[in-house]
Here is the input.
Amino acid sequence: MDLHFGDSKPTDEERAAVDAVLGPPESAWEVPPGMIADRSDADLRWARGGRAARERRDELLPGLHALNDRVGWVSEGGLDYLCRRLMVPPAEGYGVATFYSMFSVRPRPATVVRVCTDLACGGAALCGEVEARLGPASGVAVEQSPCLGLCERAPAALVVRAGAPAAPLSPTPPLPENPLAQGPGVTADRLDGSSSNAGPAETLSPGRDLSAPPAFEERGLGRSPSAEEPHMSQPGRGGVGDKTYVTAALAPAAPDTLAQAALAPENAPAEPPAALAVPQAGQDGLLLLGRIGKVDPTSLDDYRAHGGYTALRTAFAVGPAAVIREVTDSGLVGRGGAAFPTGRKWQATASQPDHPHYLVCNADESEPGTFKDRVIMEGDPYSLIESMTIAGYATGAHLGYLYLRGEYPRALQRLEHAVAQARARGFLGDDVLGQGYAFDIEIRRGAGAYICGEETALFNSIEGYRGEPRSKPPFPVEKGLFGKPTAENNVETLVNVLPILTMGAQAYAAIGTEKSTGPKLFCASGSVERPGIYELPFGATLGELLTLAGMPDNLRAVLLGGAAGGFVRPDELDIPLTFEGTREAGATLGSGVVLALDDTVPLPRVLLRIAEFFRDESCGQCVPCRVGTVRQEEALHRIVERTGAEAAGDIALLREVGRTMRDASICGLGQTAWNAVESAIDRLGAYK
Here is the structure.
């Protein structure tokens, strides 16, 4: 790739995929020479593009998704065409495309099977078995994948077959005209105000049980086709042959079933309802998970019948300043691991004189062992839409971006449907609930990059750059997305705002402890009888949680906080599950991962997998992390079968490398990459 455009031409499929996102070219200057026979007089007099095109750079990631979804990989011709349309140097576009694990810039089969090989699944052997069953002539690529967020049903796999989309490609259903939300990423040519009162879950398969739609529902990135919307696999618009884009999530995945799904993903078994991931489903007193299993996640009316949009009406009644005051008084802190006070973040964003303000929901939960946000988005999507609307109202934002993991196809479908329904019914748009407040939501798909869970890396990803963290200050509340004041929160943090407004800050703060207030979601997986999401008040002990989940008799260790967390011993189960309690115990709560390991699990292999994960996920921007994660993995490889004096030298090296990463890395990935290994050596006596 070069800084200059080359001679490569896109195929008809690639051009159609890009044009479905960006619209047709407005002039001959937007296409490679020779693709249009003659330039018009207007083209010869006026070369369009430049600044106007570059301001659409945030369309680069959706465009790459369109190419990858259509043909299975990103070719030089397709990338050149996309970059030419956006006035992005091809070398920069190539740098973005190669940053994400879900994209390929080399030819590969249209069908890709991603098998989770992370801590809860350990599917390396499953990869080999599936490859053996499929054979080399199957036209299917089998790849090892980091955590797919299906840990409660491990082992997990995701099948993706490229092809023509089942609906026109766009990051979300079209946004209505809203002058208050104009800015980068919201261009006039995409604001047509269209919406349908019938969402994808109701229209894709009449008569289906809507509480459990298949994970492999065939859609592009929006609505299902209708009579007015011809199917995109018609002659001349086909993807790979006459096939359409299909995804199928299988968990637990067995070799035979997975091989069959790889060959015909449209016939894969239906994914079970999200409620099956909540062992407490149906119990009274749940504040965050109470609707999951009770409410049809595709029905806005059902959501409202169970208390939905009560909090938003309360917010409009008291005003944005009072909303921020309630959130501050509740003691709510970020649930992603950093535990920053949410009210302070919202106040700092709202008080910035620079406009527009943005709201970003970080739904890119990629920490191995974490799946709580996925369950909320699949089982109660309208709660997130309502929460984002409240957050936007409080912070003065008129546009919210929901950055969703690329590995969550059912969550994408549910959220697209929820956004379309909320927009059609007046809960989103230029006059929300008739209150004169304009707010809308745009969904952006991630593409497989753990580092994009870091807020500034996420901003870069949305803007069309490599997902690398930015230096701070300035902080996002001052200069965040598109250089404007931005409030960023994860899914669990946002949905906590609903009970705060409905029950009051004082009642909410009475739950939990003085410093860690409210309920917390914990992801229990591994060697437990009842893996899933558990809602407990802060202050419950680790032992109480494991008792609910079914603790094994031969418990060896518990990993708290995921790969970036640390291990605790079976005799430390009285640790209170609070931010301050785990900190005092020398552990970390992180995002709420609780991975139990029994004595049959080879601990050195687990540590090696953690090291491999951080090596793969390092963005490479800073030397301590880029080099340190590699050196850490190399050392763990050398001592995987060693103990005592034979391992002493490499353990000393690991400590030195770990301290350097912790002290000098630019972001939390490098700073925490050594945590689990250190705790295993010091706390569990690994390699002794």
